[in-house]
Amino acid sequence: METLEQIRRIIREDGLVAGDKLPSERELSERLQVGRSSVREALRALEFLGLIETRRGEGTYIKEVGNHQLINLLGMFILQDERAKEDLAETKRLIEQLCLQLACQRWTEQELAQLEKSVRQKMISYELFFKWVTVASQNYLLERIWRVLHNFSQTIYDEDAFPDEFYEQMLKAFAKRDVAAVAKIWETYTQHRLSKER
């Protein structure tokens, strides 16, 4: 487990992203000062989770978040349990709510201009809007979690749809960095979706 954490630290420190090649087993073994068998075991665990892939004759590469084996494992769990489906929907909504608040405080001029263009040209959808929101929130972990949950919910539910005025109101609130207004708009349009029926 310790070797696994150390490899993850190397990935972070070296700034490796999806598509990048990992150092070889020998190099990792030398850098971490552990046996190659420990490195091999840690790499196997990362591959099982879908975080990396080994290409014969080429080496080991970091995979895109959407390809994680973890998604498939979670999918099997969610699809077997009605309560888990409700938990998925609720967790996704809560993450969206949090990302909206963060994005309202953290967007850059370039990001706001991008959102404004999409809304004005009516080239916006629920998925595109929240991809923008999660990126603008500047919290990579929340962005990745949302993408995983969104990919899942698409296999269970129809995609959410909001009217044009939702995006127009959100754009105005974002432009003013008005977190309270963003929260109110969100609550107005999702009131019936967020809470579970008991």
Automatic annotation (TrEMBL):
SUPFAM superfamilies: GntR ligand-binding domain-like, Winged helix' DNA-binding domain. Keywords: DNA-binding, Transcription, Transcription regulation. It comes from the Bacteria. The keyword Hydrolase does not apply. Residues 1-65 form the HTH gntR-type domain. CDD domains: WHTH_GntR. This is GntR family transcriptional regulator. GO terms for molecular function: DNA binding; DNA-binding transcription factor activity. Pfam families: GntR. The keyword Chloroplast does not apply. It comes from Parageobacillus galactosidasius. InterPro entries: TF_FadR/GntR_C, Tscrpt_reg_HTH_GntR, WH-like_DNA-bd_sf, WH_DNA-bd_sf.
